[in-house]
Amino acid sequence: MRTSLPTWLAITAIVLLPVLGGWLQAAPQQRPNVLFIAIDDQNDWIGCLGGHPLAKTPHIDRLAERGTLFLNAHIQAPLCNPSRTSLMLGLRPTTTGIYGLAPWFRNVEAWADRVTLPQHFKAHGYKTFTAGKIYHGGVGGPQLRAREFDVWGPAGGIGVKPETKLIPPTPMGNHPLMDWGCFPHNDEDKGDYKVASWAVEQLTAMPKDQPFFLAAGFFLPHVPCYATQKWFDLYPDDDSVLPPVREDDRADTPRFSWYIHWNLPEPRLRWVQENNQWRNLVRSYLACTSFVDDQVGRIIAALDEAGLADNTVVVLWGDHGFHLGEKAITGKNTLWERSTRVPLIFAGPGVRAGQRTTQPAELLDMYPTLVELCGLAPRDDLEGLSLVPQIKDPKAHRERPAISSHNQGNHGIRSERWRYIRYADGSEELYDVQNDPHEWTNLAADPQYVDVIGEHRRWLPKIDQPPAPGSAHRVLTYDETTDEAVWEGATVRRTDAIPE
Ligand SMILES: [Ca+2]
Ligand SMILES: [Ca+2]
User: Fold this and answer.
1) Which ligand is closest to the CA of 39, given by its number?
2) pLDDT at 16 over 80
């Protein structure tokens, strides 16, 4: 009996496909390493991002020159725990229901066994390392650490602190973290310095027979923003450091925009102005950013000196931004540019040098992107999109905008040109960010933008979960049938004065 040509082709394919598949998926020892660098509360005040004209970050800028800089990268949630949960799980906060500083996602039944980004790498033969702030808070106790990463370095954090707060008592609770300024201490005694030193030691002594995934998480410029004089000296002690603000900027933002940062330890602009702290806060934040940039530089230098740069994908990101007076507030927990736009840089094998893209990108895209760049088995249960198309061609169009959410029902949609926001009570904002980079003029009520709003509205998350069990701290709920909003357990009424 003769076997037809198509049958032969089919048989050949069946025999050869597993072999080809094996070739296409690099063998473990040939896979590139991953160096995963996180910066806490780091907004776009980074030299190469242009968010602040005086920001000095030479090491991050050099890293950007070595790879692809995402100029339009945004977080999924403007708060530590939900942002980090989202990017490590590859799921939106609107899918996990994790919006607050609690719970730890392993304590939510649906996510107790979910395979995180580093666990996926471990399952593919990587040894995983971590130091500093990668997850928010503990991972359920020291005995559970080994489940999340193989090797644990120093916890990092604030490190050396002044004996008493440097600034006057702040309103809305005088929280101990709400502090900033310069005091005499040594950079070597700071948590972030120790995290970098540990990463340098690991890279210097790294065995070459197994690929690694090394995560280093910096705490600064999160408050308290303490830095030594050397870093303050990089910035003029005058009002040229202040970001541009408009006194009446909130006149055209919905009242509900206040609800998502209703009563918080972070002082309002008015308090920092009246207490002569605005310039000090801005300089402190910038000084801390430059200090962290220097720690990034120490790690990259060690990577180069160890001869690992050619076989290590470096990704650097910030977990969300921070307002320093814009929109009349300091802090995070907003759906505006200063809160959602963050550094996102890829460099290393498979990434061409010197590229910049204005295509939207999301932090949860890091998971599928690293999987693809390192040749791991892809996963079909991730909500992010691989950024490899933009890493190959910065002009490659990406249809999906960047989507940020802060509690159920409140979403910001950022395309190449526009930012559209919809709050849980239906109120809206629209900004032409290309022509109004400070998002000063809310165009949502202007009939000529009906189509633009419609185009963005269709990207509002289809899944929009209520807060997961155990949710707490900065959690807002809203019941549209009664028009009742509840912030951290307390009802907010339409007539309540905005706390300050
Ligand atoms: Ca943070
Ligand atoms: Ca305005």
Assistant:
1) 1
2) no
